[in-house]
Amino acid sequence: MCGIVGVANLREPKPIPEELLSDMLGAIRHRGPDGFGIYRHDWIGLGNARLSIIDLSSGDQPIGNEDDSLWVVFNGEIFNYLELRPELERLGHRFHTHSDTEVILHMYEELGPGCLNRFNGQFAIALWDERQRSLFLARDRVGVRPVFYTLAGDQLVFASEVKAILQHPAVRGEIDRQALTETFTFWSPQPPHSIFKNIFELPPGHYLLLKNGQIQIRPYWQPAFVPDEPGRSSESYLEELESLLIDSTQIRLRADVPVGAYLSGGLDSSLTTALIRSYNSNRLDTFSISFTDPRFDESAFQGQMAEELGTDHHEVHCDYRDIAQAFPDVVWHTETPILRTAPTPMYLLSRLVRQHNFKVVLTGEGADEFMAGYDIFKEMKIRRFWAENPDSKLRSRLLFRLYPDIQRMGASGAFLVGFFKRGLLDTTSPFYSHQIRWTNTARTWRFLADDAANKLEPDLALPEGFSNWPVLSQAQYLEVVTFLSPYLLSSQGDRMGMGHSVEGRYPFLDYRVMEFGGRLPPDLKMPVLTEKWLLKRLGQKYLPERIWQRVKRPYRAPIHRSFFDPQPLDYVTELLSEDALRATGYFEPSAVVKLAQKAAGGGELSEVEDMALVGILSTQLVDHWFVRGASRQHRSVLPETRLVVDRTGILQ
Prior knowledge:
The chain is of the alpha/beta class. The protein folds into three domains: 220 residues, Aminohydrolase, N-terminal nucleophile (Ntn) domain (Glutamine Phosphoribosylpyrophosphate, subunit 1, domain 1), CATH 3.60.20.10; 333 residues, HUPs (Rossmann fold), CATH 3.40.50; 74 residues. It contains 28 helices and 18 strands. The strands form three sheets. The chain has a seven-stranded mixed beta sheet with strand order 10-8-9-1-3-2-18. It has a six-stranded antiparallel beta sheet with strand order 4-5-6-7-11-12, with helices on one face. The longest helix is centred in the last third of the chain and has 21 residues.
């Protein structure tokens, strides 16, 4: 795992200053504290900050091919590199390292951009072809690893994180009001947008090709949820799922450093950990989060699973003040506003992992999206059933089965029924499954200062035949492309792990497992309202009943109490003051001040008010770090290990 940076000339050759590349690498040193390398050419400069996991002795980047005509810097892992290397050697390619990075070079020589279809991994790749004078920039299928880019005069500037791009003297940070509205609707800007004007995110499953001053961006993969034809038995699917998960877990243990696992106490991470344990006799360390607030705490289940599997278990305990104190650093790493505090305990968890001298952990993300585990899928099924007879009192009461705690809002449940009845009959909309979520989140717009071109639907080019997919398949696709990739794997995943130089690996996001989930018939994923049915059947083999039969509990963390219980920290008071709000200009000061006063007075905030509060505070912090330039002072010094390849005439 690493961080990458680069600057490419579009129109004429001129050496890229080494100092600029060093400054860019310094801004993302947390991604790779073990060393850094630079490649310079008259047309391009590349940089890599390395977190050494595979081939510790000879895997430093940049790496060139046999004749030094191709050079690569790389962030991530190619998990099937051991299978690909012999194939390339039979074709005559010579290797000088034992790293997965070098496999990228030789596979690109063979297949060009088609090499991406051969890689089983999580990656951002920047590859320079001296002969063709072209830059190839690529991102993994679902965007586990990030890459951003912008045009600065006659240069293309790119990096794993925006803070590195902002080191370029011609680039400034400015919040895009439309992207801010997207965040206050979909929870994050939708790729290719970032929160910053004219700074873009390369979408998952895409590559960028720069040649002769022209930039082309093309897709090479997208999630598809087209079920197999009927006729195959559930036992056959179960056997395939088990085989795929065993292999996807095992190849993610490939490392020259110890590998641990996150253990939440739920089905997904427990199953991943159990698969590690079942096929490896080595010591296994597991890591989890506990909360002072019992509404969020799952430590009892985590402890049970750790004892069951015999792991060396470690726990980070979070109270309200822990979250508030870490939040500014969390936003420095996310580089974008967030509507939940949930990333913060993940940031503290990765710190715990690093304190125990681990660089790699396996985790269970992706199962809910591809095996149908979220309540949003159940909501959609209930609402469609209800829409067939909208006057039915019985059908609407299925919502109480989904949300039994809602009874505290009133014996009649009128609030719940009214909430989910909005847009009930709009069943022909391709966004039907997510309209309730987006409409509810958009209630935060009342705090925004101006009227951007607000929309309740994302700008998506839906796959061919999408309207003919099963309705569960449509909902799963939307969850992957609007939420998993731009928010969950970024703000709650990559950024929180790499904040402490920890790499997360995701067996459920192996492309073979994802494609299996896409082919799996809906009635084997969610028959009626039973989530992850087939995965639970697999869980019966590896897990105790109290774990695999658990009702899914969404991971969340306290919000307003974190910032106002018992007293707000100084930065909270300052950033939510009327003067600070007027200075940034993103929000209506009077509305925000009233919200803060309600939270400070001990009032119970609604879900929307909680989202608005953390969204406003994180936006103010984004402005502080990246618009007003505080991130430049936050930058770390460079590591001592240096490898500089200068193709402008000097080799160091």
